[in-house]
Amino acid sequence: MAPIALENEDHTRDAAFNKVLHGKSAEEKAGFRAMLKKDPAAQKAAIEEYFKHWDNKDAGVETAEVREARKTEYATLTRHYYNLATDLYEYGWCASFHFCRFAYGEGFHQAIARHEHYLAHMMGLRDGMKVLDVGCGVGGPAREIAKFSGANIVGLNNNDYQIERAERYAVKEHMASQLSFTKGDFMQMSFPPNVFDAVYAIEATVHAPSLEGVYSEIFRVLKPGGVFGVYEWLMTDKYDNGNPRHREIRLGIEQGDGISNMVKIDEALEAMKKAGFVLEHHEDLADREDARPWYYPLDGDLRMASSLGDVVTIARMTRLGRLAVHNFLGVLERTGLIPQGTRKTADSLGVAADSLTSLILPLRSIDMVGPRVLRPAARLLSSTPPTAAPRSSLACSRPAFTHRSLVPSISCRRGYATPTGVKEVAVRDALNEALAEELEANNKVFVLGEEVAQYNGAYVQI
To answer: pLDDT value at position 313?
Structure first.
């Protein structure tokens, strides 16, 4: 690996900037209320610092030097991206900043949780294990995985605001004794070697300037016999940097998602090996034949929503919904209620969403007819066995994981729609019916019911 120049860390500087920009907004509920508490001057500085890497540097004029500049300032770029985007993510998506697969009839939040449970299950996380979450965001996955597995999780993050929000949520959910969060750069972690039983990263290491660099750091902090699981954003070998449309889409994803250097699958696999891991399983989850595709929320297809709550979430992703948010943020900016640049950030997220769905829906671009070029849901799993060679050796092996579905497909589903209209049923009755069906089909079932209580005693499905 060619040496990667690491940014100098200055936690005092970052904390001071966080205090000025965000003030006490970390204590607010997610969404617009938190946006109202930002400092305009600090927001302007963050906007300038982040968008200097993208403004007037579109795919037609992008050079190797421009990409290298983003990699050189990877930590600052990522930190300011989340200074700007975190509240928008929590408002428009949820507290878990990642995609997921969708089963038939499965609600948005349930699918997000199942995606996290699946990774924990495949990694064998359990009570008492000390686990590192690399790039933990506001702690959504850490909280869910801690509840599911019983593991003690340390979240690593280079953004002070997200750490504050993660700590607030942990206290609110009475999980402060099971979760902790620490400031740091995943390219140069402050942890001693061989300290974690397991490490996971969920769509976070894509922010690294070098996958070999971040994977090597993860290898270093894992105990011999530890396991590393990751959901990674990667490009397939179909990507052609000489194709202007491919470059445009790749750059749109990078700009809208704070990514300095997205790479191909083969580079990630090679990075895993060079870091010292023996790869046991990798899979592109976008190839799974699910009832609904992973990208459907971004595409804003309301016909695929499973509940009234999902309709509200997905409506924000439609073109009409994004236009409404664009105009609303513009009004708030003009009246001084939120700082300038908030709408620009939201529009940038929209560019990323359009770029991602352009890969899936080729009719939107004649240049993209054919297979997907970029697949953000590629998944890697690696681990080292208890009998592994010393860390200085690259001969460590990993216990194999066989890939299987969590539950069999169920062909019989309850139907709440009637010939004359929509039937409303009590939440308790709907849950009891669902549980009875699942148990009949599979006696090894766990139930997710986190979001159902918000529907005011009635469940509606069309």
So the answer is: 86
Q: From CA 98, how far away is CA 231, in angstroms rounded?
A: 9
Comparing 45 with 387, the larger pLDDT belongs to: 45
Phi, psi of 350 (to 5 degrees): -65, -35
- Give burial (CB, 10 Å; 0-12/13-18/19+) of 89: buried
Helix (H) or strand (E) holding 154: strand 152-157
Q: For the segment 10-23, what is each residue's pLDDT rounded down to a tens digit?
A: 999 999 999 999 99
Q: What mean pLDDT is reported for the chain?
A: 80
CA-to-CA dists, residue 321 to 147, 296, 312, 313, angstroms: 33, 15, 10, 10
For residue 444, the surrounding DSSP H or E stretch is none
Q: Output the pTM of the full model.
A: 0.78
Nearest to 368 by CA among 244, 237, 232: 244
DSSP 69-100: HHHHTHHHHHHHHHHHHHHHHHHHT-SS-S--
* C-alpha span between 259 and 255 (Å, rounded): 7
pLDDT at 302 over 50: yes
Measured between alpha carbons, how far is 46 from 31 in angstroms, rounded to an integer? 19
The two three-digit tokens of residue 165, written as one number? 């929000």
What proportions of the chain, in percent to the nearest 5, are helix, strand and coil? 45, 15, 40
Q: How far apart are CA 150 and CA 168, in angstroms?
A: 20
130: closest CA among 164, 84, 180, 90? 180
Facing residues of 152 across strands?
130
* Eight-class DSSP state of 271: H
User: In the prediction, which pLDDT does 440 show?
Assistant: 57
